[in-house]
Specification:
With about 270 residues, this protein is α/β, with parallel strands linked by helices. The protein is about 30% helix and about 15% strand. The strands form 2 sheets. A 6-stranded mixed sheet has the order 4-5-6-7-9-8. Strands 3-2-1-10 form a 4-stranded mixed sheet, with helices on one face.
């Protein structure tokens, strides 16, 4: 039996998380692994993890999170913005890892797997905030500031929201060309709909969690499941009858509070041998 498995937010800069990743193994030689972003902050760590997992699983599908796109002060690898993302894509291709820039693979002739890279544009605002500037001002006043504001550079785009607009336009074009008759698994770091952010401890953080421009993709296209991370709140929700799976590992302080062993891969699909 082969399986389509998923995880995100590995954050292997934490020693305990690195140990968990070192122990990740497929149940069978035919298993695929979907990684929905935030492998690590430092380029060397991202490359280590993708190299390790690509050797173990029949196919690895990766999409970037915000942490891979950071240009961290302690990282000797200094590329920023789109150049940093392009480097990651080239590295993945050397390993045979599928990225949002590659043809979408088909798992077991039953599901199209579509890794996406959509970013965010500050449209997930708290009620009453009439603009991005007002929403950010309120968030800063409450002490809610995403590190992206300092480390995720949009170069050569003038802003992260401009980069997001370009990514959404390109991704919609490709999703419109999905093969007819096959349902798709959409893999994105940020949730495609606003609903999952409603339980955030700090509601203002939703600003950095997605864009309203993707809010109907799960109904416009033939979607089997949406896989995402970023929120560090692993759970299953349903939106318009479509299953959404948040598959984060998260930080040690978070997974220690959960029941069960950390690092369990979430099954998205199974196929009998």
């Amino acid at each position: 039996m082969s399986a389509l498995l998923a995880i995100s937010d590995l954050h292997i800069g934490h020693a305990e998380n690195r140990e968990i990743v070192e122990a990740l193994k497929p149940g069978s030689a035919a298993d695929w692994l979907l990684i929905a972003g935030d492998v690590a902050e430092l380029m060397a760590d991202v490359e280590w993890a993708l190299r390790l997992l690509s050797r173990r699983f029949a196919k690895v599908v990766w999409t970037p999170g915000n942490h891979e796109l950071w240009t961290h002060p302690s990282d000797p690898f200094r590329l920023r913005g789109a150049e940093r993302y392009d480097h990651l894509v080239r590295f993945c291709r050397e390993l045979g890892v599928v990225t949002p820039e590659d043809p979408y693979p088909v798992w077991e002739e039953s599901l199209v797997v579509a890794p996406l890279f959509s970013l965010y544009d500050y449209t997930f605002r708290v009620p009453g905030a009439r603009s991005r500037a007002e929403a950010l001002s309120q968030a800063y006043e409450r002490g809610v500031i995403c590190t992206d504001e300092m480390l995720l550079h949009p170069d050569p785009y003038p802003s992260r929201q401009a980069w997001c607009a370009a990514r959404v336009e390109e991704t919609e074009r490709r999703l419109n060309d999905l093969p007819a008759g096959l349902p798709a698994v959409l893999v994105n770091h940020w949730p495609l709909v606003r609903g999952p952010t409603d339980i955030l401890r700090y509601p203002d953080f939703a600003l950095w969690c997605g864009t309203e421009r993707t809010g109907d993709w799960h109904v416009r296209f033939n979607v089997h499941t949406v896989v995402y991370g970023h929120l560090h709140i692993p759970r299953t929700t349903w939106h318009n009858g479509v299953r959404f799976e948040e598959v984060s590992l998260g930080y040690p302080r978070e997974w220690r509070r959960r029941r069960g062993a950390p690092g369990l891969l979430r099954p998205i699909g199974r196929q009998k041998a």
